[in-house]
Structure formats: structure tokens, C-alpha cells
What does this fold into?
Amino acid sequence: MPLQVPQLDDRSFEQLVAEARARIPVHTPEWTNFNESDPGITIVELFAFMTENLLYRSNRIPELNHKKFLTLLGIGLRAAAPGQGLIAVRNERGPLAALPLDVGLEVRAGRVPFRTRTAVCVLPVEARCFYKRPHAPSDDEKARYQLLYEPFLGESGQPADYSDLTFYRTTPLDQPEIGKPLPAVELADSLAGTIDRSLWVALLAPEGRLGTEVQAALAGQILTLGIAPDPSGAARELRPFSYAPKAIPDPGLVFELLVPDAAAASEYVPASYRRLDVVYAENVLDAPGVVQLQLPGYAEIARYSPQNLNFDPVEEGTGDYPPLIEDASVAARVAAWLRVRLPDVAASEAAATSAQQARITWVGTNAARVIQALPVVNERLGVGTGTPDQSFRLANIPLVVKPQDTASSAPPEASLVVEIQGQDGAWRTWAQIDDLFAAGREDAVYMVDPESGIIRFGDGLRGLRPPLGAGIRASYEYGGGPEGNVAIGAISKSPGIPAGFAIGNPLATWGADSGESVAEGERSIPRYLRHRDRLVTAEDFRDVVRRTPGVDVGRVEVLPLFNPNAFTPDTPQQFPGTVTVLAIPCYDQGQPSAPRADKLFLDAICRWIDPRRLITTEIYVRGPAYIPIWVTVGVQFAAGRMRELVRRDIQQALRDFLSPLVGGPPVEDAPPVCGHADAGPCAQRGAGWPLGLEVRQQDLEATMTRVPGVRYVTGVRMAAQPPGGPLANDVQRVAIAGLQLPYMVALSVTEGAPEDPASLLGLRPAPTGKIFPVPVLPRKC
It folds into this structure.
């Protein structure tokens, strides 16, 4: 059981004053004036104030003893995690010139400080993204466009096998907004995404300026793009440790600048593009990040102009040219067109490679990564004493520890720099180490606790000792806490941005978390003594994953010897050294009944468990693979019951029964699935739908019969679509295997016979043959 914190004395200032005044008649009967203006009463109040402060410090002694006890056990408290995000800088009224901003620029969301982690060269353009969304016109519209474009194609020299036109609508990729689902477009989806696997980025001049006026400012500069993928549909893997160097992160996309050829007015020339060199890149298909591109010289950029394009009315937006922009004022501000597309692969590889999936949520220019932190430079910690095991405390906590990317072999960047002054007066940097017992006699190393800010040095046998009289100083960053999770647009101020420029965060920040309290550290003592913060048994995995900072884990399932990439329901196999962790968050705003594990959620778990796993273990961190289920039920309501209330209770009962967090067969005395003490959305009835348990019509019928107001059930009908399989209508049962869990997409409750589940579905046929994109303009009055 956890240690109880005793109160040595809980008397307040008022109680101390009242007790002292009550003793006055006993010890000094001649003292009769007890007013506050009396000098004696003033002295009593002064000593009561000093006594209250002394009692407060005395009551903190047990907490300090607890911290010392945890330190002796080697259990450190988890420090507060800082928030992270992306910002974009806009040139609204500034000069039409590049503005370089270095790393470390301070930006603020109210009183919450952030600092940039990447440099950015602010160019006088903003991004407006469009994509060519497939469109199915009516028969009359199709005949009209066929009549319009077929002569044009015959004269333009296009290949003869373009026998059919493919129509699209110019669709903007909207900016994320508070309270709305994140916009997203799948570049590889030719049905509901794009017809050309591309996202078109129009680089627009500021309001009131023409695009050709800013082209000179773009020539030869570095264009910084911020890209955020859709966080849904993620999977993470932790391979056994390898000391081989890994490749530089690949953004997974191709970036091309439109460089048109000058042509005669009557001649159609196919679009030509120049592939831009990537100066710096992050894996933007896995997590929000930035990509820096080298723009060409003015001669190539200036080739884009309305005079050089010289389109006929039917030519604009066709083929490989950028999509047609109907707003003439926006089209006049275009300084350049950037095409962001998936790389070309062979047809045989396209179906097998995961790199052909790119679901993009946001793209913007002049972007930089930020982290919630404040800098401290050259803080004097003290003077060395020459004794073993010297320790010094930082003035500001918690220390910001820059997270390590699990996909990269590079070590985490050092947020803390400790320097010790030698006898010659020069300052020398000592290295940080995780365990002083691993240090050698001559190693200039130290160990730090990010939560308490205590820096410890060696004893002379395991790590050098700071010599007598040596000055010690530190430069570091501190910050963190839940206030670092700010909404869209909250980061809006910076003292380092000149007039005429503005900043904002297009996406909400993520990753901020409060630190671990002493009470929480005490509760973790039994678990720590069992697994020593190492992942060995399945219970170890569950305990450690639930303590992941920055995320709320609602459910954890550990599957030893299971490889989700090689699993087949027909021939299950065991893979030694492989562990699969299924993690589900407590809540998902977009899909509350079946929370999805997004990329940021899984990344946080990977970073937390990576240093705690065995070096030979291969870990797959996954979210559930939801199987969509459509259900229609027919019931007979009991007499005297309000039908709408009973219908609502039936819907809630079925959703709870299939819930991945609180669903499944009833479990007696089931604990809250996420460990939360309060009765929130996770502290409910069950432990979630079990893995491998199929969904039967009889289970749904039994659940409805337990709802008050239901006389009997007339029927249950289901439709389901397994991942990668065909849609099955009117099924009696839905098989669940591997990491699959049911997700009720739609539910219909009617009195009498149930409806056909097909009434809840909608399908679209896939296009066939080669395509030649042509724009379709909406009709206007």
C-alpha cells in the first residue's frame, strides 16, 4: 500500500493567534488591551506568521523523505512533457524580400512560451492547396464536354489510347479549424481523392500584389514547406537494435515546380516540370514536419506567367497542367505552381508498397517546428569541492529533454550543456550519461534527473570529480505541462518578428503532459520492483505502456509471438522474439464509439518503450483494425413506453456492447480500463470487446432484450466489410481475428421488421482506362 503522508502540525495563522491570545490572561493578567493596534498583539501576529511558515516547512519533511526513498530505490519521477507543434509565418504587409529566422526564435500562446526548432526563410508568398477531385457528370454534361474536348485532343497530338475523358472538380484543401474534423485528401485514392496522385500548391503573392511582382524574391531562395499527414491509420514498428547507420529521412514525396515552355497561341504544349532539390527533410508522411526546397534562379521562375501559358479557353487545367482556379483575383496572385506527388513506381509494386499511401491534412509555407521551452544560458551552479558524488540543482525545472525519433539512429539532441572551468580558466563541456556506474575513471560525465533538476558527478572511480574551486555552469531549456497543448491559432505573438509579419499555428500542438507526483511514484513502487522498468513479461508491457506521458491510454493488449504483418487467420504462426502491442486511446473526438490510435499517439508510446525493451525484441505497436458493421434491428416496444427514449437506449446499449473500451460480455468487478480514478468515459462497465471474439446476431438480440421497454426483438440484420475484402450484406456473424475489432458505423432501430442493411450503404464504381483530366465548372445563375 502507498505510504501515508502525516501532518506534523496543521494549525493555521488564525488558530495560532487565537491560542496565544487565550494564554495572555493566564500569564500576564495586567495585559487587558487585545486590539490589533496594540504593539503586543502585533508581536504575537508576527511570531504566529513565522510559526506558520515553520510548520509548512516541517510538513514538507515527510514528502522529502518519500522522494529520498524513491531515489534510493532508483525510481525517478517522470518530468512534465513539453508541447510540440508547427507554426507558419505570413508576410502580410512586409517588404517583398526574404526574411531569415534562425533556430531558437521565441513565440508565445498567451503566456505559454515556445521556441523554434528549425530555421525558416520567410518568403513573401502563402500557400493555397488544391487537388483534382474525381467528378461524375450527368449524361448531358458528359456529352457536352466530350463534344468540346474531343476535337481539341485530336489536334493536340495526344496519344490515341486516350479514348475517354476523366472529369475533375478543382477542390481546395481547407485549412484546419477549431471544432471541425481535420480536412484530408488521399493522394493514392482515385475514387474519392485525386485523379493524378498529386497535390497542387499555388504560391500566392500577398493581398493586393501580382504574382509576377514577387518572383524575383523567390529566385535562389530556400522554400520551407510544412506538411502534416492525416494522423489516422498509423502503424509503428521497433526493430531489434542495430548499430548500422540509417539513411537520411525521406519525405516520401516528389516536389516539382511548373516551368512552362513559351508557345504560340494556337499550339498546345504539354506541361513541363523541374524537380526541386531537397535541402532538409523530415518524414512528413509519418508525422508533422518540414521540408526545405531549393528554388531555381529567376530565369526559370519567371517562365511562369499568363503570357507564357497563352491558354485557349478549353486548354486551361487540362492534362498535367495545374487545376483551373475560377477566382480571377486569386489566379492573378499566383507566383508559381508547386506539384507535390507520390513517386512513380512500377505497376507491380504499387499494390504492395506502403509508400503509395499519402493522406495529407495540411500544407503551408514558411513553417517551423516549435517546442514549449524557455532558455537559460550559463547559469552558475556553484564551485567544485573535489569530494566524491557532488550534486548541484538547476534553478528552473522541469528540464526539457528533446525526444528521440525512433525511426532515426541519431542520438537525442542535448538540451543540457554542463561546463566546468579548468585551471587555465577555459570552460570544458562534460558529457551526459544515463548511469554513472557505467563510467570509467577518466570519463568527464554527469547524470541528471529532468524532474528535480539535480546534476550528479562521479566519485573518481566511476566518473571524474569536479576539482576543488572549479566553476560549474549550465545552459539548458525548461518547460512543460498540460498548458502546452494549445488550440489552432493560439500561438500568435513573437518579439522577434518585425512589423508586417504574423505567425500562427495551423494545427493544435500535441505531446504536453503534467509530471508525475510523489503519490503516483509511490504507487508505482511494486510495479517497478517487479519489472525494474524493463519490458520482459506481458504484464510489464501493460504497466509501462499505460504510464506513457503525453497520452491517455484506454486499453492495452499484449500479444507475444505475434507478427501483424505476417498473420493470416487460416494459418496462424508464432514468431519468436516478436511482441505486438495493441493500444487504444481513451477518447477520439472524431469517432467516440471506436477511438482510433493516430500517429502521434503511437509515436509517443514508441518513444516511451524503446529505451526499456530488450535489445533482441521486435515490437509492433498498432491500433485496432476496425471492421465496419452496419446493423438494422426490429423490435416491439412494450406498452406505455415512450418509443423515442427506448430507441435511444437500444442504440446506446448496442454501441456499448460493441465498444473496444467498455464492450464485450459482462465482466464482474471489472476495473476501470484506463486507470482513471474519476467516472469518465473510460471508467465504465467492461474491458472492451475481446480480441478474436466474433460478432453474432444472437449476441445483439440478447443485449436488446435487456433494455427496459423492449417487449421482444423481431429481427437483426448485419452487413460488414473486412479490411481488404468485399462488402457482405445480410450476414449471420462477423469473424474477428488478429488485431481486428468491430466498429458500428450505422444503426437503424425500427418497430416491426428490420430494414435491409443496404439502405445504410453507398458505393461508387472505379474508373478504368487511361485518363486525360479535364475541369468541370459548376453551373452559375
The chain has 15 helices and 36 strands.
